[in-house]
Amino acid sequence: MELGYVVRVSVTGHTEAVDVMMDVPQETLCGLLETDVTERMRVPVMPDAFAGEDFVLCYFIDARGGDKALPANALGTCFYHTGCPICGDLLLAACAQDSDSAAVRGFSKAQADALLEWLRTQFPAYIQS
């Protein structure tokens, strides 16, 4: 069983790489977000470090975060581009480019580190150093 990482961004802007199985089951995402159902959305930009990769960058949230009155996640709201708040922590992971695929992959250590650095440099107003 190959190990990988997802990146968590808390509502306070704290970031961390979290150990997961490389093939990330839905149950793991639900457990990390403390929910029974997640929602997957695509990040509108890809870090330069991921150029040429065969995945898209997605973020996962608690699909019931608004109903639970979870606090807004500034970075998630920025990614969403509608002005509507994204509530609760979010997880970043690699997803198949085929939108019909439910496959979720973890990042290698180098990819997770590159993503954390990208978040810090591209979104300093939202990410705590």
Gist?
The chain is an alpha+beta fold. Helices cover 22% and strands 28% of the residues.
Provide an overview of this structure.
The protein contains three helices and six strands. By secondary structure, it is an alpha+beta fold. Strands 1, 2, 3, 4, 5 and 6 form a six-stranded antiparallel beta sheet that branches. The longest helix has 14 residues. The N and C termini lie far apart (32 Å). The model has no long low-confidence stretch (mean pLDDT 93).
Name its key features.
129 residues; alpha+beta; 6-stranded antiparallel sheet; 3 helices; 6 strands; 28% strand
- Residue windows where pLDDT falls under 50 for at least 5 positions: none
Approximate shape: globular
Helix/strand/pairing category: alpha+beta
Helix content: 10-25%
Largest β sheet strand count, sense and barrel closure:
6 strands, antiparallel
Number of helical stretches of at least 4 residues: 3
How far apart are the termini?
32 Å
Number of strands: 6
Give helix and strand order, one letter per element, not per position: EEHEEHEEH
What's the gyration radius in Å? 14 Å
Mean pLDDT over all positions: 93
Proportion of residues in extended strands: 25-35%
